[in-house]
Write a structure and sequence with these properties.
Elements (H helix, E strand, L loop, with lengths): L3 H9 L5 E6 L6 E4 L10 E5 L7 E9 L5 H18 L4 E4 L5 E8 L6 H18 L2 H6 L1 E2 L4 E2 L9 E3 L3 E2 L4 E2 L1 E2 L6 H8 L13 E3 L38 H5 L2 H7 L6 H13 L5 H11 L8 H17 L19 H15 L1 H18 L5 H6 L2
Parallel strand pairs: 6-13, 7-8
Antiparallel strand pairs: 1-2, 1-3, 3-9, 4-6, 4-8, 5-6, 5-12, 10-11
Helix pairs in contact: 8-10, 9-10, 11-12
Amino acid sequence: MNTISDLNLTFCEGADEMRYVVPKEDGTGFYFSNDTIPTPEVGSWLRSIKYKDENSYLFVLDIDAKRFDRNVLIAARGLHDTIKNYMHVVPVLKASGSKGVQLIFKLKFDENVEEHTALKNMENLAYTLYKITTPEVRQRIRFDDKPGIDCAMFTKRRMLRSFCKHLGSNMFSVPYKYEDDYTTVKKRMTLEIAPLSFQSFPEVNYKDEYVIYEYTTSTNDIGVLLEELPDLKPEDKKVASESEIYINMPTIFKRVVDCDHVDHSLKWPLISYLRIWECMQPKEIAEWLWQYSSWKDLSNVKLTMYHITWTCNWLDKKEWWIAPKEKSVRLLFPMPKSFMTSMLEERADKVGWTKLYQELRHILTQYLLMLELEPSEVSQTVR
């Protein structure tokens, strides 16, 4: 049977510094110490994210929140998938013992990389992972804010609570499983469920190519938002006007295609449109964007394909087309309300609402046929 003490020792191996939180004997509180070492069942152990004898750090996505809830767990699960798919490493999932969770792996730097550079690289990597994760995650948590990813983790001499007691909550900081639900994680933190085994942190060699986005607290390079998209003017027509797909595209998507810098929150709806309405494969979408869009951040082929492939897979597996019989077909499509309203109203002005609903059912049918699914049952469940 795994014990907190066993897990704790493994967690702290190789730490550059250690510090302890010790409960007072009279029960009136606790104090910090470098010398008095409590058992992890009674007090807290804090280890540095920096390793002592190697140029390595614990990379920690620390999701901090005002309270521990299902929202935090769902966000952590999404970030877990992003890390796994993008960096090909499975991070350790750790409940903080209080209000948050952490995703952790060991990040190894070249020996000549100084600490301040490594810390900044880790912050930028965290920001990149946040930017490329799913819209659902970014709707639930923020970056450098609450509820969200705490950037204080990427500062010098930063300490991290190990697998031990959290004296502020009287619960325990413990590992948990990806598939654990809210109730199970809560029981793990109270030790109602025996602790999971823990052998070591997975290791990754840092590469500059991992960082796509650099984080600054006052960045202007975040791309334009919906209300900032330029209006289309005849004199601004680009080569995209030669594309039949572009010609048939709703105006709101043409505006996205024709803009130089576009926020990710506007890119995924366009990818969704090309996937569902045009039944395009990820590679076809990438090639079309490279040829016809004005975006200036498409030079990273790997990142572009990652975004497109992930979005297409998300659409195809979401089963968004399954809905109660009373739900209108126009409400099924996984598209932001602002986009859907704009494109439907524009199309209805041209063909009328009756014809529009027929077109939507046809689009849905063609999409399901592309997925080799049977559309007949679905088409009967929506009006």
